[in-house]
Amino acid sequence: MSERGPAPSGEPSAVVLPRRLLEVPVDVRSTAEQRHSVRTALGPRYDIASRTVSHLLAQQPGMRAATGDRSAMLTGLSLVRIFAAEPHAEYDLDFHICLAEGLAMLPTARTVVVRGIPSAAGAAPGDVLRLRMPLVAAAADGPATGPAEALIWTTSGRRLDRVLHGATGAEDIALPAGIRLRVLEGVGGPADRVLLAEEGTGTEPALARLRSAAEARGDLRAHTDDRWLGDLPSAA
């Protein structure tokens, strides 16, 4: 049976597909046919998300002006809202292509985020990992995320507060597919963590921020939400 996170109260669960490995292409624009297919497959789930996004856009005229194709904008941002609520649900490639467009419309974040992982073992300094699919991470000062943790310095992550304003997960950051992460350091002992940074960022400044965030988080604690939990991506 497919794994998926809980749908928000009162909203139908997202359509999920049989588990399979997807690789989301970078910088590919969606077609009208793909957007129609995704909207149809999601049905009421999409309708609820799009109504909310339309209301939020009405309060953010600058964001509307910054985009061209309204259909692509509304579909993409609505899928961001759906994905952020259920990041473990399984979506097809059309969904992810439309989702990538939505994420690209959101402001970037230069910050440390945290992702729960089953174990920090196997991540060696110098390894480069590439995100083949997007993921959701918590703010560095957020709650416990898993039995071990990956702290990530990101400059390409996307803030979700624009489409989740006032909702659960508004402080989360989405990391789009295609980002490459370099393992900088492992932190063993009671706090089992691995420190990573996006390729192309300065190693020493990133490491200083990551070490500071790791120290501030202290010992690992039991997590209560799997939204931020998942395996590290495979090597590039």
Strand content: 15-25%
By DSSP, the count of extended strands is 7
Helix content: 25-40%
Major sheet characteristics: 7 strands, mixed
Number of DSSP helical runs: 6
Low-confidence stretches: 1-19
Distance between the termini: 29 Å
Overall pLDDT level: 87
| Global morphology | globular
Rg of Cα set: 17 Å
* Elements, N to C (H/E): HHHHHEEEEEEEH
Structural class: alpha+beta
Search tags:
single chain, 236 residues, alpha+beta, seven-stranded mixed beta sheet, 7 strands, disordered N terminus
Please, could you describe this protein's structure?
The protein has 236 residues and is of the alpha+beta class. The chain is built from 6 helices and 7 strands, in the order αααααβββββββα. Strands 1, 2, 3, 4, 5, 6 and 7 form a 7-stranded mixed sheet that branches. α4 (70-85) packs across α5 (93-104). The longest helix is centred in the N-terminal third of the chain and has 16 residues, at 70-85.
Topology of this structure?
Layout: H1 32-42, H2 44-58, H3 61-65, H4 70-85, H5 93-104, E1 108-117, E2 128-130, E3 135-139, E4 148-159, E5 173-175, E6 180-187, E7 193-198, H6 203-217
In short:
The chain contains six helices and seven strands, in the order H-H-H-H-H-E-E-E-E-E-E-E-H. By secondary structure, the chain is of the alpha+beta class.
